Amino acid sequence: MQAFLRTPETEEKYQAHIARGGLTHCPLCHEEPLQQFVHWKILKNAFPYDKILQVHHMLVSMRHVTEEELNEEEKQELQTIKQGYLDDHYQFILEPTRGGKSIPGHLHFHLVVVKEL
Ligand SMILES: [Zn+2]
User: Fold this and answer.
1) What pTM did the predictor assign?
2) Per CATH, is 2-114 categorized as 3.30.428?
3) Which of 76, 79, 80, 108 is the most buried (most CB within 10 A)?
4) Domain map of the chain by residue range?
């Protein structure tokens, strides 16, 4: 499905990245954050859905965990971020289903602003 969401140029970069074994290490653990909270960080998406999105960032837990593994402090800060920072900067918070996740081991939400056509 994601192939339809990227421009051909970005999709080509993404496929080349996969072909080089790019997803064998968790990219969410290593990328430089745009914004840093205590338990969460915001990253730029290296392979944005740029056919339809103006802005495509990701909200990622600092620890490499799934949603089920979040502790109380992490859940609390997530609520605070959602009700403050995200409201001020993004249009939608998107979460792929389990079937659609490319990095299932590390919880992440897509933060987006849709392109004006
Ligand atoms: Zn990770």
Assistant:
1) 0.84
2) yes
3) 108
4) 2-114
C-alpha of residue 106 to centroid of ligand 1, in Å: 5
Ligand 1 centroid to 64 CA: how many Å?
4
51-102 pLDDT, tens digit per residue, is 999 999 999 999 999 999 999 999 999 999 999 999 999 999 998 887 777 7
Helix (H) or strand (E) holding 61: strand 53-61
Indicate the residue type of 27: P
Token pair 């499905």 is found at 1
For ligand 1, the distance from its centroid to the CA atom of residue 30, given in whole angstroms, is 8
Taking every pair of Cα atoms in the chain, the longest distance, rounded to a whole number of angstroms, is 41
How many whole angstroms from 117 Cα to the centroid of ligand 1? 34
